[in-house]
Amino acid sequence: MSSRLLSRAPQDTPGTWKSYLGLGVILLVSAFPVYWMFVIATSSDEAVMSSPPALIPGDQLMVNLREVFTMQDVFFTASLINSLIVSLAVTASTLFFCSLAGFAFAKLRFKGHNVLMFIVILTLTVPNQLGVVALFIVMGELGWNGTLLAVIAPGLVTAFGVFYMRQFIGHAIPDELVEAARIDGALTMRIYWTVVVPAIRPALAVLGLLTFVATWNDFQWPLITLNGTDYPTSMVALSDLASGNYVVYRRVLAGAFVATVPLVVLLLVGGRQLVRGIMEGALK
């Protein structure tokens, strides 16, 4: 009986040339905007305005980068540092608070937890743009407008992160494991640190990557609260590069290329760790 079931189990088959061709086309189409950005970032004004446009990278990358980093009214170096500070702070706080709240909603039973979870899910249906005015007023009352605290504070915890961690913890950690730890005398925070956190590392990796990328690419709220200050983020600095009556596209895309490099490196390194963590979780 078992041999019959094994014989009917689906086997891995090598991909055909059509599947590889389709994947190659999708890869080229997806990567072309990044390649085109690099081409313009390495070109001169004449090459940018040429017809047909240049498709081969030039030799002006260092010249364009020098112009970007030496502009007096953009503060591009400071913007990269500020984006790194904001992204790291928001990612760390999101991982801690969302995983802690997800653990509470998934494994702890307290009065009103279903109502609170419904409210958390309900906030996902509200566009962020509707709360900008109220958020700006609150940050103004706290005296945080124009500072990085105004960018960090609203992202300390997210409804998506709470819901995602609650779903993952609910399926990944058996109730019996939590009860066994409680019988052994472990308190709630001890159970969280020693039982929950090691088991949800793949989910933490996914949430951390998504949060870091979303925070780094955030533009609307930093533009509103940091407008006119010397503490912009990278996306606000890029908008300053693209403003004015005459836009120097080689300069704008050189700055965009620099702002994209950390994300590409993070996804390459973090993606490998993510796959490894998922495979470890599957084996366990």
UniProtKB/TrEMBL annotation:
PROSITE patterns xref list: ABC_TM1
The record's CDD domains line, in alphabetical order, gives:
TM_PBP2
- GO CC annotations on file: plasma membrane
Q: Name one Pfam family in it.
A: BPD_transp_1
Q: Which organism is it from?
A: Actinoplanes italicus
User: Quick check: keyword Transmembrane helix in the entry?
Assistant: yes
Cell compartment(s), UniProt: Cell membrane
UniProt KW keywords: Cell membrane, Membrane, Transmembrane, Transmembrane helix, Transport
Q: Which InterPro entries match?
A: MetI-like, MetI-like_sf
Please give the SUPFAM superfamilies that the UniProt record associates with this protein: MetI-like
Membrane topology, as annotated: Multi-pass membrane protein
State the family named in the UniProt similarity comment for this chain. Belongs to the binding-protein-dependent transport system permease family.
Q: Which GO terms describe its biological process?
A: transmembrane transport
Protein name according to UniProt? Cellobiose transport system permease protein
Q: Report the residue ranges that make up the ABC transmembrane type-1 domain in this protein.
A: 80-270
Give the stretches traversing the membrane: 20-41, 74-103, 115-138, 144-164, 191-216, 248-269
The UniProt entry lists the main location of this chain as membrane
